[in-house]
Each structure stands twice: as C-alpha cells, then as structure tokens.
Amino acid sequence: MNATFDISAVVAVLATLMMITRPSAVHGLLYLTVSLLAAALVFFVLGAPFAAALEVIIYAGAIMVLFVFVIMMLNIGDAAALLESAWLKPTAWIGPGLLALLLAIELVGLAASGGIAHPAGAIVSAQTVGIALVGPYMLAVEIASFLLLAALVAAFHLGRAVMRVS
Amino acid sequence: MSRAITAGLLNVVLGLIFLMVAAALLTWIERRLLGFLQDRPGPNRVGPSGVLQVAADGIKLLFKQDWIPPFADPGIFVLAPAISMVTVMLAIAVIPATPVVGIIGNLNVGLLFFLAMSGLGVYSAVLAGWSSNNKYSLLGGMRAAAQMVSYEVFMGLALVGVVMLAGSFNLTTIVHNQLRLWYVVPQFIGFVIFFIGGVAETHRLPFDLPEGESELGAGFHTEYSGMKFGMFFVAEYIGILLVSAMTTVLFLGGWYGPFLPPFVWFGLKTGFFVCFFILLRAALPRPRYDQFMAFGWKLLLPLTLLNILITGALMLGLPAPT
Amino acid sequence: MLSSVRTLWYTFLHLFQRNVTVSYPEQMPYLAPRTRGRIILTRDPDGEERCVSCYLCAVACPVDCISLQKTEADGRWYPEHFRINFSRCIFCGFCEEACPTYAIQLTPDFEMSEYNRQNLVYEKEDLLIAGTGKYPDYNFYRVAGLAVPGKDKGEAAHERPPIDIRSLMP
Predict the structure, then answer these.
(1) CB–CB of B116 and A53 under 8 A?
(2) What is the C-alpha to C-alpha distance for residues A51 and A58, in angstroms, rounded to an integer?
(3) Residue A61 and residue B138: Cβ atoms within 8 Å?
(4) Which helix (H) or strand (E) holds C68?
(5) For A2-135, CATH number?
(6) For residues A10 and A34, what is the distance between their CA atoms, to the nearest angstrom?
(7) Which terminal residue of chain B, N or C, has fewer Cβ atoms less than 10 Å from its own Cβ?
(8) pLDDT digits over A15-57, tens only?
(9) B283 contacts C19? CB cut-off 8 A
(10) Chains C and A share 3 or more Cβ pairs within 8 Å
(11) Which residues pair with B291 in a beta bridge?
(12) How far is A97 from chain B, CA to nearest CA, in Å?
C-alpha cells in the first residue's frame, strides 16, 4: 500500500511539473489529467474511495474534458507560444514563485512533523461524506449551490441572447 | 501470498481473453443479425456460417499499413486508441458476472468506478479528433466531448435511484438486493434513461454523431488505419458488452433467475441487451445534433431529477420493507 | 418517441421474413429475359448476319465502346470488324434500341470477368451467335425494299411491285 502511495505521489508531482513546462497546451492538460488521476489514487490508498471516484468522474472526466474542448477550439499556434514566453519575464513570475516556495516549505514541514499523516485503513464511506456535507459543511454546500445556480441562470441567459442575435 | 497474486493475474488474463473473443465474435454477430434484420444473410462465407470472418478481419487489420499522418501529433495520436481500450476494459473489470466469476466485482465503489472510466473514455475520442489535425476529426472530437460529457450526467443521475434503493455502490450488493424484485420495475425511468445514456456513451447508432460517416467522413477516427482503428473498433464492441452487462447488473437482477446456472442467466440477459443494441442500429436514423442535445438536456435531465425526487419521497414515505 | 418504438418493432419483425438476397454462386438469381447483360450480334432466320453496319449503335453508345467498319458483298452490307470493349460498356442498352435490324441485342448473361483487361475486348467472332436472339422471325432483308441476290425489288414481305415511273399507265 505504501509503495502504491509513494509511486502515485511521485507521479502526481512529476506530471504537474511536466504540465507547467509543456509548450503545447493540450499536452499540458494531458499531464494535468495524469496528475489528477494520480491524486485520485492517493485518495484511494488513503482510504477515501468515494473521494477518489469523484475526483476521476468530476475533475478528470468532466472538467478537464471541457478544458481540452476549449483549447481544441482555440487552436493555439506558435505565435501564441512566442507571445507567452515574452510575457514570462522574471518580474512576472518571481512573486508567485516565492509564494509557492513558501507553501512548499510549509507542506514539507507539515509532512516532516507527521501532522497530515492519515492513518490508512479507516475507510471514509460515501455515507460519511454525505453526512459531513449536510452536517458541519452545510453552509459551504449551500454557498456552492447558490453559485452554481447563478452560473446556470447566467449560462442560460447568455445562450438565449446569442440565439436572438443570430 | 504469491498464490493469491498468481490466481488474480490468471483471473485477469482469462477475463481479458474472454472479453477479446467475445468482442470479436460480437462483430460477427452484429453483422449477421443486422443482415437478418435487413432481409439478407450477412457474412456467411468464411468458415461455418461465416464465423471465421472475425479472423479474416483481424488479419486484415493487422497487416494493414500502420500509418501516422505527417500533420498529426504523433504521441497523442497513438495514445488515443489505447485510452479507449484501457478505459472500457477497466470498467468491465468491476462487473460481477456471478458472485464468483468476475475480476473485482466486489469493489465497494464499483458503480462510481464504472462512471469514472466511462468519463475518462471521452478522452479517447477528443484526443483522437484533436491529434489528427483534420477538420472532420476535430468536429467529431468536439461532438464526442459534448455528447459524452452531457450524457454521462444523465447516466449518473439515472443510477442515483438504484443506489438509493440498494444503499450501496457495490455492484454485488446491488444484485443481491434484487433477489425479490428487479430494479427495472421500480426504476423503469432510470432504466430507460441509463440505456439511452449508455448508447450515447458508446457512440453507437443511432447516437453515432461523433462518427457520422455521412457528414464527417468517420469523425474522430478518420485518419486512423490498421490496428489503431481496430482498437477503436474493438473498444466500441467491448463498450456494448459493458453497457449491456451493466444494465443487467443494475436493473435486471444480474445472475438471478430460475433453473439455469447463474452465469447462463447473466449471459442471456446481457445478450438480450446486445441484440437490442443491434436492433437499434438497424431501425433508427441518426438525429440532428442540436435535437440530440436538446433531447438530453430538456427531456432526460428533468425526467431523471423527477425520478430521484419521487424515489426519495417514496422511500421516506413508505415503510422500509424488512 | 412512440414512432421510434413502432419502428423498432417493425424492424424486429423483419427477423422472421425471407431474405431477399440469394447466395449467388451456389444459387443462381432469377434474371428477367430482358436483363441487360453481355451484348451479342444475331443472325436472321436464314443464317445470315443481321448487322448492316449502319453505325447507329456506335453513335448511340454513350461511352463509345463500339467500333465497326462497313464492308459490302453481293449488295449486302456487313461489318468488316465489329468490336465491343466490355471494360467500357455500361450495359445501358442504347445500342439495342438504336439498332434498326435487331442485330445487336443484350442477353441476361453477366458473368464475364477477366484477369486481363485486354480479354474484355470482344471481336465479331466472339459476339456473333448462330441464332436469332429475341426476335426469331425477323429478317431485315425480307422486309426491306433493297434488292439483294435472291430477292429483287418488290419481292419483300408486304411490298408491292415497283412502279415503272417512266410509264404513263396508271
């Protein structure tokens, strides 16, 4: 079990690294998908199969597909890649890089102190997740549903407007 | 320990061999049955009543030139058919044919795993369409993405009713709970919508809009030849088996049935749905794309939500059967 | 929705109907007598060639697959050579319609594949048959006013004797 965890964790980190260094957007998205799948495996190993399945269904199976869909339609060529490399001056990336480094140090420190180690074996069932969602996290769920409803109405409105113009 | 691993591997390998043979035979069964439905005999030359047509086709596919177009993205071009094969095969692994026959039929999130794999299956069509660098392929890939992502929603929601009744994501448990009453009776709407979603998910006719040979050439696999095309082809047939088996497990009581051994019952029910797939192909024309999406979002989605609502209300209102 | 279900049912019923196709090489399909297949040249009931080399078939042919050359012997016209390139022929039957003497006819035979394309060019000896084809009694020179050896003017069927135009008598 530990070996599976280690391998998938390493794969997740490597895939994320590859994702941010690929010049082609679609390749980058594919690496991101691999990273998400590896994260799902980590969830599974840590005893949260429900979260793992949701990670694959929602993130890898739906959201990333939509990203790929959009990138496919944009048809980003070499000109866009050149423009992007022109944007990436040290002044632009040094701030976010430092912040990310800070986060990384924090994460390593936490891992070293054993603060986030989850005892593998206690399986988080779907029922537990559901009870948590309508129990302590009720407010967050409601806010998320408000947001989604607003997004739904907005999408419907935009779609209608476009249809009327054409 | 090592004996358990050997047994597991043997199980997987045997399962794969069985699956490949079944999918290959299915191509022949489909063409033959399609022939009969259209008042003609179908392939009947190679071997006894044409069974070896399968072998002939396989040899032909293997000996064809394995060509990658110079304008394609070679890495992803090769990856896409592999994804389509891997996802359907992984998804079929969670199906319990009987309590003892099956690869990981007892997975506690089996149903979600199936949904996850069918969700990942979208990538094969999308990436194939994109990497071919061809207008028609791209259009096919986009149609595939939109179609599969939206029909996955209804498929997943249609299954919520079953999960509520069974109280589990474990497919073996779901079958056990259907000992007295198949879920096709209380969940008839869910059953119909799941099957429609399954047809759309395998992009079979009449929902083969990503391929649409009359408008898009062959859609996302226009540029594919040889065994790479063969992999898409076989994956589609394994997808038929997968959806049929899944419908059997979820709604038709899996292996339960009188007199005959469990595996035979499972095979009969799955075969019924496979034949229904072929009948659909023979009978129905392809809808227009916007009609198809409107059908999904404006009819199936409200129906599934209503189904969940009514199921939940009845489960709360009626006394639980003990 | 309901119509789709009805379509499914009707298609399903086709499972129990007879096949309309036949397993061809083992079981020969029924071909109507006027099926347009291999082209032949026929002879009249007397055993003479019917073709009078009028070139109408060659003119009518939309793919120009007929080639012939007129020659003359004893007052009758014959094709010196008559060549049909069946690798071009589309079996439209226009030549048969154009023929004024029923010489060129299409038969129901269609099994004429060759490995060598050159073998599909049929010469006159390949095309000419011994019989009369679809019109057993028709004989062009017996109904035409043309004088040929053995039949002078006015001796054809339904033909009156020739009028002497230099005579004043009615």
Answers:
(1) yes
(2) 10
(3) no
(4) strand C66-73
(5) 1.20.120.1200
(6) 12
(7) C
(8) 888 888 877 777 888 888 888 888 888 888 887 888 888 888 8
(9) no
(10) no
(11) none
(12) 30
Asked if A28 has any chain B CB less than 8 Å from its own CB, the reply is no
Is chain B touching chain A, with at least 3 CB–CB pairs below 8 Å?
A: yes
Looking at the complex, report in whole angstroms how far the Cα of residue B205 sits from the nearest Cα belonging to chain C. Answer: 13
Q: Which fold has domain C31-143?
A: Alpha-Beta Plaits (3.30.70)
What is the domain count for chain B?
2
Q: Which residue of C has its CA nearest to B32?
A: C15
Domain stops at, among B40, B63, B86: B63
- Quick one: pLDDT at residue B73? 81
> In angstroms, what separates the C-alpha of A72 from chain B's closest C-alpha?
7
Distances (CA, A) of B201 to B105, B114, B251, C38: 22, 12, 18, 51
Q: Say if residues A22 and A33 touch (Cβ distance below 8 Å).
A: no
Domains of chain A: which residue ranges?
2-135, 136-166
Report the Cα B247 to chain-centroid distance in Å.
10
Residue B321 has pLDDT above 60, yes or no: no
Same domain, B8 and B68: no
Q: Report if residue B322 sits inside a domain.
A: no
Which residue, of B44, B63, B82, is where some domain finishes?
B63
For the cut 90, the answer to whether the pLDDT of residue A147 exceeds it is: yes
The three-class DSSP label of residue C93 is coil
Task: Using an 8 Å CB-CB cutoff, list chain B residues near A126.
Answer: 109, 169
Domain range summary for chain C, segments of one domain joined by +:
31-143
